[in-house]
Each structure stands twice: as C-alpha cells, then as structure tokens.
Design a protein that fits this description.
Elements: H1 3-19, E1 24-27, H2 32-45, E2 49-55, H3 61-73, E3 77-82, H4 98-116, E4 122-123, H5 137-143, H6 149-152, H7 157-167, H8 192-207, E5 213-218, E6 221-226, H9 231-235, H10 239-250, E7 254-257
Parallel strand pairs: 1-2, 1-4, 2-3, 6-7
Antiparallel strand pairs: 5-6
Length: 274
C-alpha cells in the first residue's frame, strides 16, 4: 500500500472514530491540527459538530479571525468565549507548569460550554508528535478526559499537513503556532503589555515575509528565531536595521538574532528531565 493510500485509510479511521461519538464539540484554534480535526468532524458528523474557540490575549487576533472565517465558509456552528488568562491563578507568574494551569481552566470552561450546547464530548487536536516535548498541558487534557482522536489514530504533524493539502485545506502550509505566553522565559512575569509587544514584533516580521518566526522575550531583550534558510535574507538590503528600529519602538532595549534558528519549544531547555 502506498503512502497516500495509507493516509486515506488512516483518515477514514479518524472519521469513524469521530462518528462513534454521535456528536462532538471540537476545541478549535484555527491552527493546522484543529482545522484538520474540525473538517474531519464535519464530514463524519455533519450538523452534529460544534466548534469552540477561546479568545485570549495569548492568541493573536489574526488567528481568531481565521478561525471565524473557516467556520463560516464550511457552515460549522461556532461559539467563541472570551477569557482573561491573567485571571487564572499563577498564569502571570509564568511557572514551568503555566501551560497546565491555563489549559486546565480553559478546557473546564469549554466542557461547560459544550454541555450548555447539548454536547457531552469534547475533542482536541493533539497529534503523535506532541508527546516528544515538555508539554504539561497534556496532563490537564488527560485529567479532564478530553478526547484526542488524531493521536488515537496515529497521525503525525507531517501526515496532517499532507492529508490537509490533499483535502484542499488552506491551513496545510500554515506555520506552527504556539500561544504567546510561550515566548517568555519561565519565571519572568507576563503582562498584557509584554504580550502585546511580542505579538506586534512577530506581526512585523510576518509582514517582512518571515512566516515561521518567534520573538522570545528575556527581560528587555528580544531574541528573534527564524528558519535557518531565512537568516541570510534579514541581512539583505539592511532589513535588520528596520527590524531593530521597529522593535525598539515597541519597547525592546536590545534586539538579537538567534544563530541556531527557529526551534519549537526552545524555552523548555533544561526542563525536559524534570
């Protein structure tokens, strides 16, 4: 059996797994994984599908708009709840288990929202690759018995992108996205102002053509991560001067470029063995 045929078989298994729930609410961020999961749920369950999205400071506004657009285009019922994550005890202090504290609160809220709409089952888009890094938020999902059908049916990130491309889903080539709280060194207090600085800095880099980027914040220092192949282009036409000027305007005292390049979860170094 060829690669594509194997993917199609796995996709059928995914739809059968979702269909077994009868009806389901999907935690929907608008990212690659949740778009793929929601599309499969719509195919498997039709109108018995509900998309639930949480609006946060830590999620760029552009992501929320894209989530709304997708649901509207595909005729999927969509509910949005606005939450101030800074009201979650411990979140602003940014401890190593910040993601656990946040996800536990947010998914409890989504479970309640789903039940209010008549849905007893809540699914989310973790995949097999999510098991490799330090991800304390996964423990919250396990404790709340949130279902993860992509992981259950063995989908990796690469397979999700490839099957999404085959299905014509625009998110197939969307850069990986993590919440803006992941841009801060553990123990550094997070504030709405700091989060806004990071969001605006990353949006500026996107406007310059750097689709996969991170701006990590260490005190008043911005550490920019780009794909290795993109690093030479920031030196062209002295673009680095424009970047330094813009980030200084946003409030950063120092602007640096990480020569190791983009690395998902780079703030987790030293924590994986804890």
């Amino acid at each position: 059996m060829g690669y594509i045929e194997d993917l199609e078989r796995k996709y059928d298994q995914l739809k059968n797994r979702i269909a077994s729930a009868g009806k389901a609410a999907i935690a929907f961020s608008g990212g690659v994984d949740s778009v793929f999961l929601l599309y499969a749920a719509k195919e498997a369950l039709g109108d018995q599908t509900l998309a639930l999205t949480v609006s946060l400071h830590a999620v760029p506004r552009r992501e929320l708009q894209e989530a709304e657009d997708f649901c509207r285009q595909h005729g999927i019922r969509h509910r949005i709840r606005t939450v101030d994550e800074f009201s979650i005890e411990g979140f602003a202090d940014n401890p190593p288990n910040r993601c656990y504290l946040c996800k536990k609160t947010l998914f409890q809220m989504m479970l309640e929202a789903a039940k209010e709409e008549g849905f007893q089952t809540l699914m989310e888009g973790s995949n097999l690759d999510d098991q490799g890094d330090y991800r304390p938020g996964l423990r919250a999902l396990q404790e709340l018995k949130i279902q993860s059908p992509l992981k259950e049916t063995g989908f990796t990130k690469t397979e999700i992108r490839e099957m999404s491309r085959k299905l014509g889903l625009p998110a197939w080539e969307k850069p990986s996205m993590a919440c803006l709280a992941s841009r801060f060194a553990y123990g550094e207090r997070i504030t709405p102002k700091k989060m806004s600085m990071v969001e605006q800095a990353e949006e500026y880099l996107t406007a310059l053509g750097f689709a996969q980027r991170r701006v990590r914040m260490h005190g008043s220092l911005a550490r920019i991560e780009l794909l290795l192949e993109d690093i030479p282009s920031i030196m062209e036409e002295r673009r680095y001067e424009r970047v330094q000027k813009r980030l200084s305007e946003l409030g950063f005292s120092y602007v640096t470029l990480d020569l190791k390049g983009f690395e998902s979860g780079s703030m987790n170094k030293g924590l994986n063995d804890k």
